[in-house]
Amino acid sequence: MPLIAPAPLGSSTWLLQLRTFAIVGQLITILFARLLTPTSLPIGALLVLVIFTAITNGAYGWWLSRAERNREESNGESTMDPATGLSSAMTSPIADSQASLLSEFKSETPLRLAFVLMAMDLITLTAMLYLTGGADNPFSLFYFVNIAIGGVILTAPLTWTLTALAMLGYVALLIDSRPVAGLTIQPAETPDWLIATLDLRDCGLLFAFVTCATVLAYFVTRISRQLRLREQDLRRSQSERADAMRLEGLTTLAAGAAHELASPLSAIDVACRELTRHLEDIPKPKSVDEDLSLIDGQLLMCRQILSRMRAASGDTAAQRWNRTTLGDLIDTALEGIRDPHRVEIIESDDDASWEDQPMWLPEEAVAQAIRNLIHNGLDASESSESVAVELLVDGDEARLQVRDQGQGMSDEVLDRAGDPFFTTKEPGRGIGLGLFLTRNVITRLGGTLKFDSTPGMGTVATVRLPLPKE
């Protein structure tokens, strides 16, 4: 079993472990030089520098452990609301805003702290080398180690700052250092060629150091950036896969519910029609005919809802692709709107022929997606206010905008709009699946869904769908 558990490359814990190994290595080197070589070194001053590094490393480890405890407590609180027993994704967006600010703080603070520690390590290394022969000390090569570690952990600007600091330290060692017998190289005679106090050998060492440090910093930062981008792509793929798995579970549930409800609704429909036929020639109150008509209308609505559930669940019949027009698509979407009088269709003066634009898509699924956006706009607006729907054919894509007159959304809520089970509606008015399914339908067609919102001024949902190629 290792003395120290392995840590991810480039993490804060990884830096903590590297500094621990460096402290142990420095103590062993000082002890070796003191006991096994006749070299006279300022042991006291060197031990003070090592102790200083150990103190800063201990403080860094304490800070990391405290930050880890706070993170675990924050995750526990955000995972479950003890008052309601609900996931934080279904609670108020205020908690999500606080979590976003905390996440931003946690992502920036360790990076800055790591830079400060590594800058202190460079200064400490320079001081140790100054006391032990300067640039002639073989351990001056550890400047490159610090630059390489900085390239892995830090951002490119911070890495280049660290590299510049290492170059300044090396220049200082070339100009002045405490000579040590057996390490310091003294010229046989006074050189004729000098730049300031640097002879030809010192200038060559400086040029080689600057060149190596620059090349090392460039390649390490470039490779680190590529690795970070690859890691982001991997996380994005994992997130998309998780969304697909959640969608699969939801669609399975929807398909099962649609299948189970179809049979009793069919039986009710048959019984209602038989009852209507038997009572057709029998004197009865007018309210009976009205009730039978109401039942028939509600059964028709139930059949439409089941059809939409099958479309959301991936039913091949409900998601059958067919040729239609943009105007027919909007008409289909408006058929199931609960307050159609509050929906205003705006036609652009630049393009009045959008209604005849041919489309090739699963009409019912896309209509349901548009219907979800309109319903969200109606829910966000007052009962006396309308929702504007504007359509436009822009090049090789159709653009649809749904503009409500609600209170708008904050940036934190916008970032989570479309996440499953995230909703800002009152309990009983939604469970946060409409936008998730809407985004899934539009994305699978190669389109995009974007929200623009200003608090107090409403929200605009923009859907872009590619047009069929002729």
TrEMBL record:
<dbReference type="InterPro" id="IPR050428">
    <property type="entry name" value="TCS_sensor_his_kinase"/>
</dbReference>
<feature type="transmembrane region" description="Helical">
    <location>
        <begin position="193"/>
        <end position="220"/>
    </location>
</feature>
<keyword id="KW-0547">Nucleotide-binding</keyword>
<feature type="transmembrane region" description="Helical">
    <location>
        <begin position="16"/>
        <end position="36"/>
    </location>
</feature>
<dbReference type="GO" id="GO:0000160">
    <property type="term" value="P:phosphorelay signal transduction system"/>
</dbReference>
<keyword id="KW-0808">Transferase</keyword>
<feature type="transmembrane region" description="Helical">
    <location>
        <begin position="111"/>
        <end position="131"/>
    </location>
</feature>
<dbReference type="Pfam" id="PF02518">
    <property type="entry name" value="HATPase_c"/>
</dbReference>
<dbReference type="InterPro" id="IPR005467">
    <property type="entry name" value="His_kinase_dom"/>
</dbReference>
<dbReference type="InterPro" id="IPR036890">
    <property type="entry name" value="HATPase_C_sf"/>
</dbReference>
<keyword id="KW-0597">Phosphoprotein</keyword>
<dbReference type="InterPro" id="IPR004358">
    <property type="entry name" value="Sig_transdc_His_kin-like_C"/>
</dbReference>
<keyword id="KW-1133">Transmembrane helix</keyword>
<protein>
    <recommendedName>
        <fullName>histidine kinase</fullName>
        <ecNumber>2.7.13.3</ecNumber>
    </recommendedName>
</protein>
<keyword id="KW-0472">Membrane</keyword>
<feature type="transmembrane region" description="Helical">
    <location>
        <begin position="143"/>
        <end position="173"/>
    </location>
</feature>
<feature type="domain" description="Histidine kinase">
    <location>
        <begin position="256"/>
        <end position="469"/>
    </location>
</feature>
<keyword id="KW-0812">Transmembrane</keyword>
<dbReference type="GO" id="GO:0005886">
    <property type="term" value="C:plasma membrane"/>
</dbReference>
<dbReference type="GO" id="GO:0004673">
    <property type="term" value="F:protein histidine kinase activity"/>
</dbReference>
<keyword id="KW-0418">Kinase</keyword>
<dbReference type="GO" id="GO:0005524">
    <property type="term" value="F:ATP binding"/>
</dbReference>
<feature type="transmembrane region" description="Helical">
    <location>
        <begin position="43"/>
        <end position="63"/>
    </location>
</feature>
<keyword id="KW-0067">ATP-binding</keyword>
<dbReference type="InterPro" id="IPR003594">
    <property type="entry name" value="HATPase_dom"/>
</dbReference>
